Amino acid sequence: MQITAAQLAEMINARIEGDPDVIITAPAKIEEAGPGTITFLANLSYEHFLYSTQASVVLVSQEFKPRTKVQPTLLRVDDVYGTVGQLLAIYQKNEADQTRRAVSSYAVVEPTARLGNNVRIGKFAVVEDGASVGDNTVILDQVYIGPNARVGANCTIYPGVRILRDCVVGNHCILHPNVVIGGDGFGFAPDAETGVYQKVPQVGNVILKDHVEVGSCTTIDRATLGSTIIQAGVKLDNLIQIAHNVEIGENTVIAALTGVAGSAKIGANCRIGGQVGIAGHCTIAEGTQVQAQSGVIASVKGPDAKLGGSPHMHYPDYLRSYAVFKRLPGLLEDIRKRLKALEG
Amino acid sequence: MQITAAQLAEMINARIEGDPDVIITAPAKIEEAGPGTITFLANLSYEHFLYSTQASVVLVSQEFKPRTKVQPTLLRVDDVYGTVGQLLAIYQKNEADQTRRAVSSYAVVEPTARLGNNVRIGKFAVVEDGASVGDNTVILDQVYIGPNARVGANCTIYPGVRILRDCVVGNHCILHPNVVIGGDGFGFAPDAETGVYQKVPQVGNVILKDHVEVGSCTTIDRATLGSTIIQAGVKLDNLIQIAHNVEIGENTVIAALTGVAGSAKIGANCRIGGQVGIAGHCTIAEGTQVQAQSGVIASVKGPDAKLGGSPHMHYPDYLRSYAVFKRLPGLLEDIRKRLKALEG
Amino acid sequence: MQITAAQLAEMINARIEGDPDVIITAPAKIEEAGPGTITFLANLSYEHFLYSTQASVVLVSQEFKPRTKVQPTLLRVDDVYGTVGQLLAIYQKNEADQTRRAVSSYAVVEPTARLGNNVRIGKFAVVEDGASVGDNTVILDQVYIGPNARVGANCTIYPGVRILRDCVVGNHCILHPNVVIGGDGFGFAPDAETGVYQKVPQVGNVILKDHVEVGSCTTIDRATLGSTIIQAGVKLDNLIQIAHNVEIGENTVIAALTGVAGSAKIGANCRIGGQVGIAGHCTIAEGTQVQAQSGVIASVKGPDAKLGGSPHMHYPDYLRSYAVFKRLPGLLEDIRKRLKALEG
């Protein structure tokens, strides 16, 4: 992105103070900004950086009064944070538009695969027989779209993602690098006599609805039969394990390194911390919040429960019990002394 | 798979009630089954679905008596669950047979690599110098088989798996997408004066014996010297970390997000839950069960111990202690009141 | 590597006893060593293996006196362990030198990418527009180096690594298979009315300084704005999550499956165990040690604190409290009995 301060001011409806012709190429933080960057000052505890920054342009509020002369061009706006969001979105869209919309000559798209309009398929990517990719979707390099898998419109699928046979990704989804959709569920039946495990065939699939985002190296297993379902608007962080036949409700967010065991059903609008474990076949009510590192071992009726501990309990109660736990040796010692004194 | 009810009935030795010529293309759950699918009714709490299902064929027991007329063709068998397993295995085998047995023209197999009979090598897969792949093994797209690595017969290696230099995979193994076999062990020696870490060379390998299955994004590090060994029949879930020089005994199963630190030795037939940590150099006896999220910090003599907590303890004892922990603030309050009353 | 005992003796300044012409091809552990291997005897509790080993050559100390005649050629050195390290480094260097220094004809290096001298780019690897790779760096097969990403000199980047747009890797770094550098940070703003999450654009990058090593499937997210920074000499194990805008100080080591949340700052020379969680925006002082499976939920002033538990506390105190926890049911029972007796 190359744009002058004056051009940008017009786009974001800002008032210019300083050189209108200075060129901006990228956004930056005020404490790190170099020449050619645009930054912002909203929180006044960062004001001192304004007087030394190398940035070419700084967004400030209409009311802000610098204590001394400043080097960069100032762009005054009504809502600094709001404008930053707008600016970053413009910047990111601009970057994305630079990516070529085309099928790389190094990609393999099998004859029976169907591609929508304005699709990009990256180098060494594979779209297998019977698979489909919707309009405006970007499939980056080295991605695998398996037989009969379907990816919707307006998605971004980053390098190294694997979407296996028969799985379905909705519209406006983002899958970060090395995500795996549709590995086999972990299902084995032990032979009663020998203890040797026989594989239970996993013939279901995974369905991601619209506006789902999945973090790097997260794995979502296919259902044994039927579908593992991630509802619209769900956001999954990196390195999460979602087992076979799980269902996750709309707009639920889950932080990194959490594991959800087979057939668990998580309601809508839940907030689940990092490194949480959720046992198989649990049903978690809408709006449940689970503290990082907790272990949910049974269904939660909720709604809007706050859980902590392993096994889980009401989180404020966990903190109260833990506060006592921290002082246990001293508390016990005191009780014993007093008992001894009483016992004479 | 396209088959008529009559053809299937002959294969699974079923008795037909209804249209024998209806065509089946896929299995499904009774509550979700659409036209062209086959489903089953074993648990009678699902019976009401039978009267509304769109499925073309339903497996039922010999004894089952519908309360009213049913639309789908019924196939009566002696053991419904057993037949479902048989059916899914037929379906999955059939799907696998459709995959072309050949070396893709987009794969690179180096001149000194050796391929068995009936091997498939997928697009953008690499088999490096000195590597070998056994009979009937399917190497899917974008897999990496490093120099001198060996993969046995009848394996399935999914897209994005990396099997590094000198590592060995047995027969009948399944490696799910993005698994890493043979990354360097995490070994560093700090310089006593500067605190800077020097890498300890990792020149061993990883050996997977027969019938091992490894879940998506699981990582198994090579030994510093010698081998990290996964014995026959071991089943590892997704996102598991197995460190250098670990040994895991036959038919042990480990759930997702568990970490096993360097040189730990886990016995046969253990059952280890998700998010468990096992400390380095521990020896865990045969048949040990470890509850999810526990931390095993020392050797376990067992056999057949049940562990929970972090650091680990006898699991039933952990639950008893935890039950008291949950009530600690109230219990302490009560004791204090009674002590005060006694002290006058 | 093929070398005779005599040639090796000269390289490591050893004294030969036995056949000087025996050929060595690989190192091995004494209890597993086969013909053609070299092994060592330093810890005398392994001495009995010396009399049965199939190894061709064994390193021993100058002083060591075998109890009986031995089959392998002995190489006597002053410092057995030191020589083993030297030997493994020679062996590994030798293996690495065999890898061809060249750009594979199956790789794609875009026209505006810049490659240093003596660079290797593996098969199906991609180096995108504006990216650069420093001298002597080895990029293995199926790696992705995104637009404008920079990789320094003398690095090894293993198969399946993804280094996304604008990210920077220093010199002498090692990235193990399927590592992801620069996936988007996990940033979403909920719509106050609908609960639907809007993506916060993530336009920063990731910077790895020199001598950083990153384990298989570890993920490091790009900063929202600015950089996620991994300082020189940091060693990260497998399956670690480093969130957006985190900074990790020099020579800090982190074990597998640990998660560091957004904007946390970890000091230099910390030692962080496996499966640890560190909350967002915490500052952890230099030299802090964190026990495996702990949860650090607030800043740690330190230096050199030792932490355990979740939420974290002083680790020795955690162990003392936990020792009481293990005995809680019995302790409570005893207190109650004594109270009852006193209350008459």
From TrEMBL, chains A, B, C:
<dbReference type="InterPro" id="IPR020573">
    <property type="entry name" value="UDP_GlcNAc_AcTrfase_non-rep"/>
</dbReference>
<feature type="domain" description="UDP-3-O-[3-hydroxymyristoyl] glucosamine N-acyltransferase non-repeat region">
    <location>
        <begin position="21"/>
        <end position="89"/>
    </location>
</feature>
<dbReference type="GO" id="GO:0016020">
    <property type="term" value="C:membrane"/>
</dbReference>
<keyword id="KW-0444">Lipid biosynthesis</keyword>
<comment type="pathway">
    <text>Bacterial outer membrane biogenesis; LPS lipid A biosynthesis.</text>
</comment>
<feature type="active site" description="Proton acceptor">
    <location>
        <position position="244"/>
    </location>
</feature>
<dbReference type="InterPro" id="IPR007691">
    <property type="entry name" value="LpxD"/>
</dbReference>
<keyword id="KW-0012">Acyltransferase</keyword>
<dbReference type="InterPro" id="IPR001451">
    <property type="entry name" value="Hexapep"/>
</dbReference>
<keyword id="KW-0443">Lipid metabolism</keyword>
<keyword id="KW-0441">Lipid A biosynthesis</keyword>
<dbReference type="GO" id="GO:0016410">
    <property type="term" value="F:N-acyltransferase activity"/>
</dbReference>
<dbReference type="Pfam" id="PF04613">
    <property type="entry name" value="LpxD"/>
</dbReference>
<comment type="subunit">
    <text>Homotrimer.</text>
</comment>
<dbReference type="Pfam" id="PF00132">
    <property type="entry name" value="Hexapep"/>
</dbReference>
<dbReference type="GO" id="GO:0103118">
    <property type="term" value="F:UDP-3-O-[(3R)-3-hydroxyacyl]-glucosamine N-acyltransferase activity"/>
</dbReference>
<comment type="similarity">
    <text>Belongs to the transferase hexapeptide repeat family. LpxD subfamily.</text>
</comment>
<protein>
    <recommendedName>
        <fullName>UDP-3-O-acylglucosamine N-acyltransferase</fullName>
        <ecNumber>2.3.1.191</ecNumber>
    </recommendedName>
</protein>
<keyword id="KW-0677">Repeat</keyword>
<comment type="function">
    <text>Catalyzes the N-acylation of UDP-3-O-acylglucosamine using 3-hydroxyacyl-ACP as the acyl donor. Is involved in the biosynthesis of lipid A, a phosphorylated glycolipid that anchors the lipopolysaccharide to the outer membrane of the cell.</text>
</comment>
<dbReference type="GO" id="GO:0009245">
    <property type="term" value="P:lipid A biosynthetic process"/>
</dbReference>
<keyword id="KW-0808">Transferase</keyword>
<dbReference type="InterPro" id="IPR011004">
    <property type="entry name" value="Trimer_LpxA-like_sf"/>
</dbReference>
